[in-house]
Amino acid sequence: xxxxxxxxxxxxxxxxxYPLGKxxxxxxxxxxxxxIRTTAQNxxxxxxxxxxxxxxxxxxxxxxxxxxxxxxxxxxKPSADYEFSLVTNCPGNCEYCYLQTAQAYxxxxxxxVNLEDIFDNIKSHIANNENKLTTFEVASSGDPLGLEHITGxxxxxxxxxxxxxxxxxxxxxxxxxxEPLLGLKHNSHTRFRFSINSRYVxxxxxxxxxxxxxxxxxxxxxxxxxxxxxxxxxxxMRYEGWKEEYMELFDRLKEKINxxxxxEPITFELIQHRFTPTAKEFIIKRFPGTKLDMDxxxxxxxxxxxxxxxxxxxxxxxxxxxxFISSLITKRFPQALIDYFV
Length: 342
Ligand code: SF4
Description:
pyruvate-formate lyase- activating enzyme; eight-stranded mixed β-sheet; five-stranded mixed β-sheet; binds iron/sulfur cluster
């Protein structure tokens, strides 16, 4: 797929004190990209457009080069012990993305250039966990591979984790440009997962991301380079013909992936579609013709992370999804591990 290039880039003054901040400034000076030096609080009002529908697509083409503040890392269950960010948001435009709520008022992309501080903070979280293995998720607030051709920061992070005995990195992506990562000294300390879904979900809701063939091709390259491999099937949706389409998905995956010599068992993480009332409001404003099924009467209300209610499938429907998708996986990938279903 075509590589992302922002329309405009904001540089926060603090970012220019770091080597990566300076490198990125030089990089964008040589591109046809508008550069604006300002502080973070000015960014939202400087993005062109007046209505949500006008502003949102422009925000998704805006990159802010900034620094990560604070040292407390959030817990990231069930995927990892902690999460940290190299980027927030991504060039993709998935209608159901949870950032519709979490970053509702700041839908622009951010990348953090103070890698030295981020790595020091990770080391101190590992030290606090005595001699146990500590896992870190790097893609819970965005997709770092989507910006890697600009920042290079995921590569540096993978090599940093390659040197750590008591820590493992977990990445997930819907992008496919993995070539710069293939020759890195990762030491098999990074589990690389690809987000996959049925034809209907990818075609209707996952705009500006790599298609399934591209993701699966990238997955086989990553496994070939010795990274532990995984897949996240999310969000799993029920719609007319969902069972046939998910079966087709795993048949296609088996064709491509079964010949891959993965050094550790392939993992699968299964996440059903859910939405919050706030997300629904934003999605309808940003994607007025959306086909996303957000009919509350067919769902169950559950208390979710960050103090928000979310609508999940009913217990009966969720149970059917779990059982059906798990059986598709175990029949085709008997050695694989299903980490969780939520
Ligand atoms: S690729 Fe991931 S982070 Fe980016 S919009 Fe889609 S779901 Fe959100």
